[in-house]
UniProtKB/TrEMBL annotation, chain A:
It comes from Fibrella rubiginis. It catalyses: a quinone + NADH + 5 H(+)(in) = a quinol + NAD(+) + 4 H(+)(out). The chain crosses the membrane at residues 6-23, 30-47, 53-74, 101-121, 150-172. This is NADH-quinone oxidoreductase subunit J. NDH-1 shuttles electrons from NADH, via FMN and iron-sulfur (Fe-S) centers, to quinones in the respiratory chain. Couples the redox reaction to proton translocation (for every two electrons transferred, four hydrogen ions are translocated across the cytoplasmic membrane), and thus conserves the redox energy in a proton gradient. It is an enzyme of class 7 (translocase).
Automatic annotation (TrEMBL), chain B:
It comes from the Bacteria. NDH-1 is composed of 14 different subunits. Subunits NuoA, H, J, K, L, M, N constitute the membrane sector of the complex. Keywords: Cell membrane, Membrane, NAD, Quinone, Translocase, Transmembrane, Transmembrane helix, Transport. This is NADH-quinone oxidoreductase subunit A. The lineage of its organism: Bacteria, Pseudomonadati, Bacteroidota, Cytophagia, Cytophagales. InterPro entries: NAD(P)H_OxRDtase_bac/plastid (IPR023043), NADH_UbQ/plastoQ_OxRdtase_su3 (IPR000440), NDAH_ubi_oxred_su3_sf (IPR038430).
From TrEMBL, chain C:
The keyword Amino-acid biosynthesis does not apply. It comes from Fibrella rubiginis. It catalyses: a quinone + NADH + 5 H(+)(in) = a quinol + NAD(+) + 4 H(+)(out). NDH-1 shuttles electrons from NADH, via FMN and iron-sulfur (Fe-S) centers, to quinones in the respiratory chain. The immediate electron acceptor for the enzyme in this species is believed to be ubiquinone. Couples the redox reaction to proton translocation (for every two electrons transferred, four hydrogen ions are translocated across the cytoplasmic membrane), and thus conserves the redox energy in a proton gradient. This subunit may bind ubiquinone. PROSITE patterns: COMPLEX1_ND1_2. It comes from the Bacteria. This is NADH-quinone oxidoreductase subunit H. InterPro entries: NADH_UbQ_OxRdtase_su1/FPO, NADH_UbQ_OxRdtase_su1_CS. One of its GO terms (molecular function) is oxidoreductase activity, acting on NAD(P)H, quinone or similar compound as acceptor. The keyword Transmembrane applies. Its EC number is 7.1.1.-. Keywords: Cell membrane, Membrane, NAD, Oxidoreductase, Quinone, Translocase, Transmembrane, Transmembrane helix, Ubiquinone. GO terms for biological process: aerobic respiration. It holds the Pfam family NADHdh.
Length: 178, 159, 386
C-alpha cells in the first residue's frame, strides 16, 4: 500500500520532470514543474520531513513557480492553436542553445546525477521503518536547532534575502522606470 | 495503520473523484452543439484581435519577486514561533531562552523589514494611480456654452 | 482492524465533504437573500418555500447548460483550471476541528477530518496553492480579460499571503503548536480567545482572508466594470459552476478557520461546567457526546456569523482600486503585522502578558481620533427644496 503510493509519487515526479525537459512550450514546462514539485513534496513526507514538505509547497509552489509563471507570461505569447502561426510562436519560446560546450554540459549533468544519486542512496526514508502514527513532527527540532546550533546561518539567510531584494530591485528598476 | 498524511492523500483522492464524477455526469447530461460563433473568444462582441499575448506591467513580476523573499522569511519563522514560548526551554535556561530567541528573530525580521523599507523608498511597491483623462470631443459647439448651461442650473451650495 | 479504521475515516471524510458542500450550496442562497435584504428586495422566492430549492435549481441549470471550450483556448489546461480551484477549496476543510470528540464504546473519535499536527502549515500550503486554479484557467482561456484577471488574482493572493502568515505566527507564539486542535484547546475561557489577545492580528487576518477569497472589496480579478467576467469570462456550464462554487467553499473554510483561530473554535463560555453537568446526569458516553454536539453547534454558529459577515461586507463596501489594494497589502498590513509579532513576543516574555498588542490598537485609535479632530470640518450643505 505504502510502496504503491511511494512509487506513484516517484512516477509523478519523473513524468513532471520529463515533461519539463521535453515539451517545447515554456509555459507547459512551468506547469509540469508544478507537478514535479508536488511530487517531491510528497516524497519528503515519505522521508518523515513534514515541515520540509510543507515549506517546499509554500516556497517553491506558492512563490517561486508563480514568479516563473509571471516571467514566462510577461515575455512569451501563448500559443495559438487554430491559426497558422503555431510554428512561429513555438519557435519564439524555444531556448536556443549553441553547440558549444556540449561536453561541459554532459559532464556537469553526469556529475550532478552522480552526486544526487549518492545522496538519495544514503537517504533515510523513515516511513518505511517505523509506524507512521508515531512519527513526531520535525518542526520542534528544527526550531530549536535554528535558534541554537544554526543561529549564524539563520541570520545570514536574512542578509542573503536582503541582498536578493536589493538586487531584484536593481534589475527591476530599468523595466519599471524606462 | 494509516498515517495522517495517508488520510490526507485519501481526502485528496476523494476530492479528485468527486470533481471527476461531476464533470463526467455533466458531460452525459448536457447538449453539445458547437458552432464557430460559439467557440470564438469573447471580446465584448467585437471580432477578437490576436491572442491574449498582451504586454502587462512588469511591476507584477517585481511584486512576485519581493513576495518570494518574504515567503522564505515566513517559513523560517514558523519553527521559531513554535519553540519560542516553550515553558520547558525557558525553565531550563532560567528565562534566558525567550529573550535570546526573541532577539534573534527580531534581528532576522528587522533585516528583512529594512529590505521592505528599501523597496518602499525606491518605489518598487508603488502602483501608478489611474490618471483620469477627460475625453476631448471634436465638436462645433464651443465649450463656453456648456459652462453657461452649468452655471444656469448650478445648485446653490451655500445658503 | 485496519479495515474498520479505513471505513471510519472514509465516513468522516465523506461527512466533512458533505457538510462543506451543503453549506457552500446554501451560502449561494443566503448570499442572494442577504443581498436582497440589504437592497430592500425580496430575493429568490419561487423555487420551493421561501425559494429554498433555488440552489438545487441552479445546480441543475449548471448541469444542463452547454459547455463550450473556445477554439483558441488550451483544452486540457482549460479543464484543469476550475478543477484545481475546486480541489484546493475542498482540501482545506479537512483539518478543521469541528468538535471535541465522540465516544463510542471504548473508541474516542475526534470530530475532525485529519488531526494533523502541522494543521496550520497545511492550511497555509493549501492557500498558497489556491493561486493556480485561477491562474491556469485564466491563461488557458486565451482571452485578454481572463489573463488580466488571472494575473491580478495571483498578484493579489501573494501580496496578502505574507501578512496572513505573519498574523498566524503571532498566534503560534502564544500556543507553541501547529495543531489547530491544540490552538482551540488553548483558548479555553472567554477572555483567552485569540480575538482578545490578538485584536490587531484578527483584523489583519480577516482582511487577508477577504483578499484570499477574492471577495468584495478585493474582487478585482473578476471586476466586471473593467474585466467583463475576469478570469472566468470564457467559462460556462459546470466549469463556471466550479469557479463560483469554489468561492463559496473558500468562504466557508475561511470562516471556519477564523472561528477556530480567533474565536475559540468549539469553545464557549462555561463549557466545562456544561460538560461536567451533562456527564453527571447522562453518563460519561451520552453526556460527553451531547456536550460535543453543543460545541459543534456553537462552532457552526460562529461560522455562519462570519459567512454572513462576508456577505454583509460584500454588499456594503465598494471595490478597491488596484493601487489601493497593493498599498494596503504591502505598506499597511505587512509593517503592522511585523510590529504585531514583535510586540506579542515582548509581551509574552514580560511576565506572560498576552494582551500586549492592545497597545498598537490603542495608539491607532488615538491617532485616528486626533486625525478626525484635526481634519477640517466641512461646511454643512443645505439643499434647497425644489
Amino acid at each position: 500500500m505504502l510502496q504503491i503510493a511511494f512509487f506513484a509519487f516517484i512516477a509523478l515526479t519523473l513524468i513532471g520532470a520529463l515533461t519539463v525537459l521535453l515539451t517545447r512550450n515554456v509555459l507547459y514546462s512551468a506547469y509540469a514543474l508544478l507537478l514535479t514539485l508536488l511530487g517531491v513534496a510528497a516524497l519528503f513526507v515519505f522521508a518523515g520531513a513534514d515541515f520540509l514538505a510543507v515549506s517546499q509547497i509554500i516556497i517553491y509552489v506558492g512563490g517561486v513557480l508563480v514568479l516563473v509563471l509571471f516571467g514566462v507570461m510577461l515575455t512569451s505569447k501563448p500559443t495559438t492553436i487554430s491559426t497558422s502561426t503555431v510554428v512561429a510562436s513555438e519557435r519564439s519560446n524555444a531556448i536556443l542553445a549553441g553547440s558549444r560546450g556540449v561536453w561541459l554540459g554532459v559532464l556537469l549533468a553526469a556529475g550532478l546525477f552522480f552526486g544526487l544519486s549518492r545522496l538519495l542512496m544514503n537517504a533515510h526514508f523513515a516511513l518505511f521503518d517505523q509506524p507512521i502514527s508515531k512519527a513526531p513532527t520535525t518542526i520542534d527540532t528544527i526550531g530549536k536547532q535554528l535558534m541554537t546550533e544554526y543561529i549564524v546561518p539563520f541570520e545570514v539567510i536574512s542578509i542573503l534575502l536582503l541582498v536578493a531584494l536589493v538586487g531584484a530591485g536593481y534589475l527591476a528598476k530599468k523595466s519599471i522606470k524606462p | 495503520m494509516l498515517s495522517q498524511f495517508g488520510i490526507m492523500f485519501l481526502f485528496i483522492l476523494t476530492a479528485f473523484a468527486f470533481i471527476g464524477g461531476i464533470l463526467l455526469f455533466g458531460k452525459l447530461l448536457r447538449p453539445d452543439r458547437p458552432t464557430e460563433e460559439k467557440l470564438t473568444t469573447y471580446e465584448s462582441g467585437e471580432e477578437p484581435v490576436g491572442n491574449a499575448g498582451v504586454q502587462f506591467n512588469p511591476r507584477f513580476y517585481v511584486v512576485a519577486l519581493v513576495f518570494v523573499l518574504f515567503d522564505v522569511e515566513l517559513v523560517l519563522l514558523f519553527p521559531w514561533a513554535t519553540v519560542f514560548g516553550q515553558p520547558t526551554l525557558i525553565a531550563e535556561t532560567g528565562g534566558l531562552w525567550g529573550w535570546f530567541a526573541l532577539t534573534e528573530a527580531v534581528v532576522f525580521v528587522v533585516i528583512l523589514a529594512l529590505g521592505l523599507a528599501y523597496a518602499w523608498a525606491k518605489g518598487y511597491l508603488d502602483w501608478e494611480k489611474p490618471q483620469p483623462q477627460l475625453p476631448t470631443v471634436a465638436t462645433k459647439v464651443p465649450t463656453t456654452l456648456y459652462e453657461q448651461v452649468n452655471e444656469r442650473y448650478k445648485r446653490p451650495t451655500t445658503p | 482492524m485496519e479495515l474498520t479504521v479505513l471505513v471510519i475515516k472514509s465516513l468522516v471524510i465523506l461527512a466533512v465533504f458533505g457538510i462543506t458542500l451543503l453549506i457552500a450550496t446554501y451560502s449561494t442562497y443566503a448570499e442572494r437573500k442577504v443581498a436582497a435584504f440589504l437592497q430592500d428586495r425580496i430575493g429568490p422566492n419561487r423555487a420551493g418555500p421561501f425559494g429554498l430549492l433555488q440552489p438545487i435549481a441552479d445546480a441543475g441549470k449548471m448541469f444542463f447548460k452547454e459547455d463550450f471550450i473556445p477554439a483558441q483556448a488550451n483544452k486540457w489546461l482549460f479543464i484543469l483550471g476550475p478543477c484545481l480551484a475546486m480541489l484546493t477549496a475542498l482540501m482545506s476543510s479537512a483539518v478543521i476541528p469541528f468538535g471535541d470528540s465522540i465516544r463510542y464504546g471504548s473508541f474516542e473519535v475526534p470530530v475532525q477530518g485529519i488531526d494533523v499536527n502541522v494543521g496550520v502549515l497545511y492550511v497555509f500550503g493549501v492557500v498558497s496553492l489556491g493561486v493556480y486554479g485561477v491562474m491556469i484557467g485564466g491563461w488557458a482561456s486565451n482571452n485578454k480579460f481572463s489573463l488580466l484577471g488571472a494575473i491580478r488574482a495571483a498578484s493579489q493572493n501573494i501580496s496578502y499571503e505574507v501578512a496572513l502568515g505573519l498574523s498566524i505566527i503571532a498566534i503560534l507564539m502564544m500556543t507553541g503548536s501547529l495543531s489547530l486542535r491544540h490552538i482551540v484547546n488553548e483558548q479555553n475561557g472567554f477572555f483567552q480567545w485569540n480575538v482578545f489577545t490578538q485584536p490587531l492580528g484578527f483584523v489583519i487576518f480577516l482582511t487577508c482572508a477577504f483578499a484570499e477569497c477574492n471577495r468584495t472589496p478585493f474582487d478585482l480579478p473578476e471586476c466586471e466594470t473593467e474585466l467583463v467576467g475576469g478570469y472566468h469570462t470564457e467559462y460556462s456550464s459546470m466549469k463556471l459552476g466550479f469557479y463560483l462554487f469554489a468561492e463559496y467553499i473558500n468562504m466557508f473554510t475561511s470562516s471556519a478557520i477564523i472561528s477556530t483561530l480567533y474565536f475559540g473554535g468549539f469553545q464557549y463560555p462555561f463549557m466545562h461546567q456544561v460538560h461536567d453537568a451533562l456527564v453527571d446526569s447522562l453518563g460519561s458516553t451520552v453526556g460527553h457526546n451531547i456536550a460535543t454536539g453543543i460545541g459543534t453547534a456553537v462552532l457552526f454558529g460562529k461560522i455562519f456569523f462570519f459567512i454572513f459577515f462576508f456577505m454583509w461586507v460584500r454588499w456594503t463596501i465598494p471595490r478597491f482600486r488596484f493601487d489601493q489594494l497593493m498599498n494596503l497589502g504591502w505598506k499597511t498590513l505587512i509593517p503592522l503585522s511585523i510590529l504585531n509579532v514583535v510586540l506579542t513576543g515582548a509581551g509574552l516574555l514580560f511576565d506572560k502578558f498576552k494582551y500586549a498588542t492592545w497597545l498598537i490598537v490603542i495608539v491607532m485609535i488615538i491617532m485616528a481620533a486626533t486625525n478626525a479632530i484635526k481634519a477640517p470640518r466641512r461646511k454643512p450643505v443645505t439643499v434647497p427644496q425644489l
